[in-house]
Design goal:
Elements lengths: L1 E5 L3 H13 L3 E5 L2 H10 L4 E5 L7 H10 L6 E5 L4 H10 L3 E4 L4 H16 L5 E4 L2 E4 L4 E4 L2 E3 L3 H12 L7 H8 L9 H14 L4 E4 L3 E4 L2 H4 L1
Parallel strand pairs: 1-2, 1-3, 3-4, 4-5
Antiparallel strand pairs: 6-7, 7-8, 8-9, 10-11
Helix pairs in contact: 2-3, 6-8
Length: about 220
């Protein structure tokens, strides 16, 4: 899953990046409203963490323009200001959630997980497909109760497919959602990750839809 963080404070921006990356997300960063608006307007994100008090273009304006242009990714507003009128302005602009600085990073992670769950129609942080289970809180996966060891990119592929299980996910979509902006993307590596995942979770859990992409399935339900 890929997250955009738009925050002008360099220390907080770095802290958020480290926290989200450690939690298993691909993270892009912007230090002002103009860069943030451009990234959100041109890249596919699963969620955005957006500060209100940004240079060049304030966060409310950024969000309003995204929504006007049809960008529907979930957005969490961050701000040091706690007046109710500013919170209302953020929600009216299209925000999905709100955190006032200072905040505990664990709460931010919980809110990000909740937004991602809701946007993909899941109720809990534990995503299940048969006896395959991914705990997005701990970024760990199990099959039949047995833990499986995954690399960071394998986890991102599996977590994205678990959020969208049953749907055919094109290879280009996986590329867009598991790599950050600065990563040297190669769509051929997706086949490598899929191959590794099949060895670890079972070859019958990921089907290849020729010319379309990949689909995560519950083999027992498909039988």
């Amino acid at each position: 899953m890929r997250i955009l963080v738009v925050e002008d404070d360099p220390d907080l921006r770095r802290q958020l990046s480290d926290t989200l990356t450690h939690a298993g997300y691909a993270v892009d960063l912007a230090a002002d409203g103009e860069d943030g608006h451009f990234l959100g307007d041109t890249e596919p994100y699963d969620a955005v963490v957006l500060d209100l008090g940004l240079p060049k273009m304030d966060g409310v304006t950024v969000l309003e323009r995204w929504r006007e242009d049809g960008r529907d990714f979930p957005v969490i507003i961050l701000t040091a200001r706690d007046r109710w009128s500013e919170k209302v302005a953020g929600f009216d602009a299209g925000a999905d959630d709100y955190l006032t600085k200072p905040f505990v990073t664990e709460e931010l992670l919980a809110r990000v997980r909740a937004l991602l769950r809701r946007s993909s129609g899941h109720a809990t942080s534990a995503l299940e497909c048969g006896d395959l289970r991914v705990d997005t809180k701990s970024a760990r996966a199990t099959v039949g109760g047995k833990a499986i060891k995954l690399t960071a990119h394998e986890y991102r592929v599996l977590a994205y497919m678990m959020h969208h299980q049953g749907r055919v996910v094109p290879r280009t979509e996986l590329v867009e959602h598991i790599y950050d902006q600065d990563f040297d993307r190669d769509s051929n590596t997706i086949e490598v990750f899929i191959g590794r995942l099949r060895k670890k979770i079972g070859s019958d859990r990921i089907s290849t839809e020729r010319g379309l992409g990949y689909r995560l399935i519950n083999p027992e339900a498909e039988a």
